[in-house]
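Q: What residues go here?
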């Protein structure tokens, strides 16, 4: 086991940092209490219950760290997406794709959070683990990830640390194996949400949330390919324009904000306030295998929704909904698929703080306190408060019809 060299170190923010300037100026010089020598060992909580928390507390420090982590991970993902190689993509045991960028993003987020919040116990529930990378035929992939991570840290210039070794990278990836739960604080990370969209050159998100006593208290969604302008169904060619990407963030009781990943001033966003389902447009997965398009079609018909669905990948749907690009997001995966908390935590609070609401098909709010999986009934509905009763009824009627044996 690698050992920690605990040395207080002053980290100066380099003015030439490539990150969003608002993040850099907000991040004052700070002390970190470990330095990275030849090996790396994470600050891991021995027990979630040992984490202190208070419902009345502010999460400002965590929010600054989370924005910085997601922004740095976005830089890595954008660089990889520009020149993606066949060898950058692997298949996981569940047959879903994973790329060097998924792993690199997870390492960067975990690294930045621990650097920025050195005095806090660290617990992370994240999607990726190092199992496949420890296999012999993954040596080249691991080297590529290590280089990508070190290049990104060096190009940003905020952290004066020695380059991470391959073994450090594996250790940092495995910081994400926490089980979460209802005690203490846990970060929740999807390092690339929508890997299939990432591979197509379409939408994806770096999604980072924080749970405190089982509740999502902050969320950051970096969407590097999402334009700042609306992508509602009248303006879908906005999706094909090049963009510097959007960063959405929300903290409990503080609202939801959006800024560009290149550092425009933040604007407060709000969900659509339409009460009329006929005017509402809806989002659903691009991938039909992730959510039943026919069920959403039947729900939309019942509601009288006129516009065709906007199909995009990832939690970018939650971001777009939080600023009113559409009013309803429906997600009905195949029977047997278990939703994970990292696929919804950040998006959930981004929408909730923008005035929206998310529930399962029985109308129960999403519960993030049960570990790595969400325990829910059938599917997920996200909309504004006024539309929720009508959408819920249409969902339940459509599900009943679907359950009837066809004549
Ligand atoms: N069979 C599946 N059904 C539903 N969701 C899936 C499935 N396979 C992967 N996912 C996850 O769905 C999310 C993206 O879906 P969508 O774009 O449809 O919203 C991602 O979190 C993706 O994981 P990943 O994070 O690995 O991309
Ligand atoms: Mg995945
Ligand atoms: Mg995901
Ligand atoms: Mg993912």
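A:
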């Amino acid at each position: 086991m690698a050992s920690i060299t605990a040395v207080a170190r002053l980290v100066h923010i380099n003015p030439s940092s490539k990150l969003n300037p608002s993040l850099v100026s907000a991040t004052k010089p700070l002390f970190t209490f470990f330095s990275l020598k030849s090996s790396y060992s994470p600050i891991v909580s021995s027990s979630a219950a040992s984490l202190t928390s208070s419902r009345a507390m502010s999460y400002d420090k965590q929010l600054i760290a989370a924005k910085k982590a997601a922004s740095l991970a976005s830089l890595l993902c954008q660089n990889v997406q520009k020149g993606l190689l066949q060898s950058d993509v692997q298949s996981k045991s569940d047959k879903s794709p994973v790329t060097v960028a998924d792993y690199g993003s997870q390492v960067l987020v975990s690294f930045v959070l621990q650097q920025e919040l050195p005095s806090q116990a660290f617990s992370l529930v994240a999607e990726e683990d190092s199992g496949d990378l420890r296999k012999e035929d993954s040596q080249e992939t691991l080297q590529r990830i290590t280089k990508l991570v070190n290049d990104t840290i060096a190009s940003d210039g905020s952290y004066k640390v020695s380059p991470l070794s391959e073994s450090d990278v594996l250790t940092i990836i495995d910081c994400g194996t926490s089980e979460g739960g209802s005690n203490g604080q846990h970060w929740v990370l999807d390092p690339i949400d929508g890997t299939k969209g990432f591979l197509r050159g379409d939408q994806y998100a770096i999604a980072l949330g924080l749970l405190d006593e089982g509740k999502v208290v902050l969320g950051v969604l970096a969407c590097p390919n999402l334009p700042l302008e609306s992508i509602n169904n009248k303006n879908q060619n906005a999706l094909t324009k090049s963009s510097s990407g959007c960063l959405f963030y929300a903290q409990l009781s503080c609202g939801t904000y959006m800024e560009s990943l290149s550092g425009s001033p933040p604007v407060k966003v709000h969900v659509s306030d339409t009460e009329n389902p006929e005017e509402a447009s809806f989002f659903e997965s691009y991938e039909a295998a992730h959510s039943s398009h026919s069920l959403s079609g039947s729900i939309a018909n019942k509601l009288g929704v006129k516009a065709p669905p906007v199909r995009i990948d990832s939690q970018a749907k939650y971001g777009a909904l939080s600023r009113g690009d559409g009013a309803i997001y429906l997600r009905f995966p195949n029977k047997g698929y278990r939703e994970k908390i990292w696929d919804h935590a950040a998006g959930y609070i981004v929408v909730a703080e923008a005035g929206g609401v998310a529930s399962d098909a029985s109308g129960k709010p999403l519960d993030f306190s049960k570990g790595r999986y969400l325990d829910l009934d059938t599917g997920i509905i996200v909309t504004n408060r006024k539309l929720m009763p009508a959408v819920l009824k249409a969902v339940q009627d459509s599900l009943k019809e679907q359950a009837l044996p066809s004549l």
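A: Context that may help when evaluating the design: The pocket of magnesium ion (ligand 2) is lined by residues 96, 98, 127, 195 (CB under 6 Å). Residues 1-17, 21-55 have pLDDT under 50 and may be disordered.
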